[in-house]
Amino acid sequence: MEVSPSYLLTLLITKRRVCVLEASTDNNEKSWDDFREEHIESARILFFGNLSRNAAPVHPLQFQRYVRSLGVDGDCHVILYDRGDMIWATYAFWIFTLFGHNKVSVLSGGFDEWKRLQAGSEQYRTESGPGAYVQRIGNFQAEWKSNVICTFDDVLTNTELKTYDLVDAQDKEEYSGIGTGAIFGHIRSAVNIPIDDVFNWRDQRWLNNSDLSRVLSDAGLHRQKPVIVYCSTSVRSSMIWFALRRCNYNATIYFGSWPEWLIRAPDFLKIIPERRRTL
What we know:
Residues 29-123, 185-270 form the Rhodanese domain. InterPro entries: Rhodanese-like_dom, Rhodanese-like_dom_sf, TST/MPST-like. It holds the Pfam family Rhodanese. One of its GO terms (molecular function) is thiosulfate-cyanide sulfurtransferase activity. One of its GO terms (cellular component) is mitochondrion. The protein is of the alpha/beta class. It has ten helices and 18 strands. The strands form six sheets. The chain has a five-stranded parallel beta sheet, with helices on both faces. A five-stranded parallel beta sheet has the order 10-17-16-11-13. It folds into two domains: 2-127, Rhodanese-like domain (Oxidized Rhodanese, domain 1); 146-276, Rhodanese-like domain (Oxidized Rhodanese, domain 1, 3-Layer(aba) Sandwich). β14 and β15 (205-206) form a beta hairpin.
């Protein structure tokens, strides 16, 4: 799931079949400016807006067409990184997994770690410009993997059958319903694991697997049960999903997330402070 910068460096030096993609927020001027100014050697930019629309994954054929335009083949090793948030790389990882790419990894530490290592070794090269030239269109074939995504009906059924543990990846204020602006709250029976509990932002590192397992266990998750994760957009869910996968949990993402549940679910399955219900 994760590869070290030294591992990626070896792949680049030995000219192995690798597609390095910088996961970015969206196709805007700042994203392009940052990428053109400097990026990891041979990288191409991957825009969030081409992976998801209105909090839902794009159609498999749309994704297939897009990543083929970036030169992605079915047998190349896709390595994803971002510029410090990790959230965009893990979301892209989930999308690649959803659409059936079997060899995809996230670069540990992302661009910041690559730059840190570059200070001690010129082998960790970066480039400027629009990205590596695509010599030919890729041949990746998208295939929908339903085991990593679930729907409103799946979650609704689970409120009765309790087949899955349910994790809310919103921050604590949103989960508790005291976040400002929108009507926040959570699905009945969901436990809260914010992304701050699994990722060290200062060091740009995941908790080690031992500490991760403790966080998940302390939240009440059972390793023998699969897990449904949701947030407000699916983006933060991808980080918790990634953490669960690192610890060998069987996890899936409810892509409709809290906004869909708020609209469609019966009131008794929504935990919202009474004063927020009329906003």
